[in-house]
Amino acid sequence: MSITAEPEILIERAPAVSALPTSTDEPPPALDVVDLVRDFTRRKSTPVRALDGMSLRVPRGEVHGLLGPNGAGKTTLVKILSTVLLPTGGHARIRGHDVVAEARAVRPLIGVVFGGDRGLYTRLTGRQNLEFWAAVQHVPSKTLRRRCAELLDRLGLSGTADRRVETYSRGMRQRLHLARGLVADAPVLFLDEPTMGMDPVAAREFQALIGELRGEGRTIVLATHNMAEAAELCDRVSFVRGGKVIDTRSPRALADLAAGAHGVEIDDDPDPVALAAVRALPGVTSVEPGAGSARIRVRGEEHLPDVLRTLADHRLTSVRTMRPTLEDVYLALIGDRGLEV
Q1: Does residue 307 form part of some domain?
Q2: Which pairing describes strands 110-114 and 188-192: parallel, antiparallel, or unpaired?
Q3: Are strands 31-40 and 89-94 parallel, antiparallel or unpaired?
Q4: pLDDT tens-place string over residues 273-302
Q5: What is the domain extent for residue 96?
Q6: CA 236, CA 66: separation in Å to the nearest integer?
Q7: What is the rounded distance in angstroms from the CA atom of residue 129 to the CA atom of residue 119?
Q8: In a domain, 26, yes or no
Q9: Residue 225 and residue 166 in one domain
Q10: What is the SS3 assignment for 67?
Q11: How many structural domains is the chain composed of?
Q12: Beta 110-114 vs 97-98: how paired, if at all?
């Protein structure tokens, strides 16, 4: 049987890299990114800057979220940190090792989990996929089969390990992706949209597995669009826009940034006349009608009484107030880009 590898990003000649200072008092952080820049040059066109001086520091044992719209630079950052793409400028270290100058030292320290079907050979079985990637990552031959069997069992794939991956569901493929990321027992994991396309049950199971890995003390960097996922799993969250980190805080602290973004949810089928009356009130920033419901956002808590009074005047009484969420912070910091990428 022949295996045709998927096309990989070509590794360019490494630019000159100067050493970053490290502290001798304590172990270096899991991730230390300083002024990272990455430009993509296309023929006869202006270079596109994917990373524009990005800086980020993640201590060991932290689950850190990267949130941002398409094109913000999240995947480019993950590719640089996993040594498959070179930066144009700046520096990045994984547990004290430079990702360019010490790429061979970095690779055993990291595991990468992508969403979708990238990196899986669908005509091979789950076990064959995992054993192949274990060999690629230089897992010792004496322990390779045992380690693969243990991971397949842990991730609930032992019963289907000898089936072709083309028969796997989305959730099963994502669990196999996670097994691939763990097969070398890496202390740092990069998860790039790991629950993309998964149904809610499969996503919940996958998130539970991430919680287990967190309990083992691994460092996890989670690039995602899922607000609820980031709020539940992450110790801290960084918002990325235009190739830069624009804010980094805990999910709770980030929610405090949107303290003025209160709102009301209507469970009744809202009358368009009522919504128009609410939309005209001072302090109302948005009115979002839905199927048999509506969501109203106001600039400050002091505007809620006027909104509730107007809804009551229009006989809409099945309502509830909302506290600011991580999504409110996302929209406040990133902005509503619509379909722009």
Answers
A1: yes
A2: parallel
A3: antiparallel
A4: 988 998 899 888 888 887 778 888 887 777
A5: 31-256
A6: 9
A7: 9
A8: no
A9: yes
A10: strand
A11: 2
A12: unpaired
